[in-house]
Write a structure and sequence with these properties.
five-stranded mixed beta sheet, 2 domains, 10 strands, five-stranded antiparallel beta sheet, 10 helices, elongated, about 425 residues, alpha+beta, Sulfite Oxidase, Chain A, domain 2, single chain
Amino acid sequence: MGDRRQRTAPHLPRAPFPLPTGPAFWRSPVRGVRFTAVLGVVLLAGITLLFVTGLLSYAAYNPDLAAVNDKTPAKGLLGFYLFDWPTGPHWLYRLTQGLHVTVGIVLVPVLLAKLWSVVPKLFALPPARSAGHALERCSVLLLVGGALFQFVTGLLNIQLEYLFPGSFYPLHFYGAWVFFAAFLTHTFLKLPRALRVLRRGLPAAQDELASPAPAAETVSRRGALAVVGAGSLLLLVTSAGRSFDGGVRQTALLTPRGGAEPGTGPNGFQINKTAAHVGVTPAETGADWRLTVVGPAGETQLSRAQLLSMGQHSAALPIACVEGWSTSDQWWRGVRLRDLAALAGFPEDPPGVLVESLQRSGPFRSVALRDNQVRDPHSLLALAVNGEDLSPDHGFPARVIVPAAPGVMNTKWVGRLTFGELR
């Protein structure tokens, strides 16, 4: 009789599906300590510049001057460095905030490549092998989370400037301190080794980021760095132009203030917020509009015609906003703030001033300016720009323009100036 037993193929053990916790899961031949070290050194320089220029931007708002300026009232010791923001050079804020936003945009490919290069270590087991390793892992988690939070909120604020009305400042300020603390810790732990690797290299057997079983190479590590650099260059070319006028601005395809200017003629330059958006109506800014000036001399109301009859002065000043865009110098003409302070009862050494706008919505409806800003001869209550009356969207019938101040401090549609009482 034949053998009726069913013949089966010998049982072969099936290879388990690799998990992210094992080195076999990560097979890119590009990953390596040297690749990561190059990206890390670039980020070290770039993020340090971002942090410094960010703190300068915060100081430019003069948050210690008055509650209306302070969007982070619980900052405590974190405001230890604050100083009296100067009025010169007049392009100071244009430079520092332009650098802050441009460098932040340009670093995006570098940051993403750096996170990609070290992602295997985020899944490595055991979570902590020693106290030092536990500290390193905690710093990495805070570093990754903080970096993503800061870059994402910053980019959203650039692209959608009204997404975080009023809340962007505390979010970005406190987030920056948490992120930078983790960044310093990580730099302290990793920078010496990164510099050694860049100087002398590292044997393949000691490269914990390199895959033990890499896939076939499609791009070299140098090629990958070139791709990252090309991405940063592309972002630079398509965003930096928002800080310039003319044809250069039209190259800024990836930012809201790129492309053509919003109009032609003397008032045809960039606008941070329109009259319609903040609820200012033609009826409020028409013939019945009056500027109220308050000080020791009492309360004075001035029509636009009366302001025009006062001594008129000119100043060439840009507008520069927290979103990183700016204009070139525009020729503003109007009454000096220090002359209005004299009218209010401060003929000598005018103090700071509380500026109140007619606008009904949005942050910085009221702004306090420091005494050095009031005293600067280029600080104006502007009535005209580039030889023409202000347009409604540029602040008609009167707006403040101050050297080196953030755009939101240059209040439009001014209704009241109170000298000497800041709140």
